[in-house]
Fold this sequence. Notes:
With 297 residues, this protein is α/β, with parallel strands linked by helices. Helices cover 42% and strands 21% of the residues.
Amino acid sequence: MDINYELYKVFYYVASSLSFSEASKKLFISQSAVSQSIKTLERKLNQSLFVRSTKKVQLTPAGTILYKHIEPAMNLIRRGETQLLDSSTLGLGQLHIGASDTICRYLLVPCLQQFHKKFPGVPIKVTNATSLGCVDLLEQGKVDVVIANTPNSRLNPSYVKKTLRQFQDVFLANPAYFNMKQQQIPFETLKQYPILALDRKCTTSEFLHHLFLQHQLELVPQVELSSNDLLIDLARIGIGIAFLPDYCIGPNLQDLYVLQTKEEIPKRQVVAAVNTALPVSASTEEFLRLLPGEAVE
């Protein structure tokens, strides 16, 4: 189609803010010019992109489909501009990482310290999201590299560049409230206790529910949170039995113990992944080299 790409830029700003006035401010053009651009784009596409009312603006189904394609393209252009500007002054562009707060705290800090020591002039940006959410950021071109838990239902296996480590998920309890230290507990019995788990948007929760379903069991956690540290705190005061990765267990958890389950809990991996459909920056390449673990061919 013979469409001026400036029209897509206007569409992006309206769609991302759901406001014609906000888009006009960001684009430094009049609101009437924004409105006219959207009308022109709709006419050329022969599709209505927005539902307009006096109080709010909403995307139509066609507008939602278009936005899903335009947003990654705009992020990619912005990312390319940033890399060019940074590389001209610093030698390497900004490093933008996506990782969960748990991975950042327990695994990533030493790697970031090492990278910063080697490249002190390179800006480092970290965006926190769940391992599932990090893959969405990677697909949209909003981050350069993600450090995430696998299995991950959203991660393209071809994106994985390095396996940092294996880990084991465990059930953690306070013996003052749940004293089963010398026992092997079947999942069937364990599900009768109050289970503390991460919310459904996390790979750990996805893994836990899938694990129980493999044994024809449905698990309904007593508590679902977004923080492993909070799960540990609640397990400590006897609210329930927490399910979390073993790399979150530090030397200060002597008052808690790991339950032994009758069924085996498969090990998982922490991986580094990039979007292979997009250019990989020099700073990302250097960061991948510094990460511990095995490269994936």
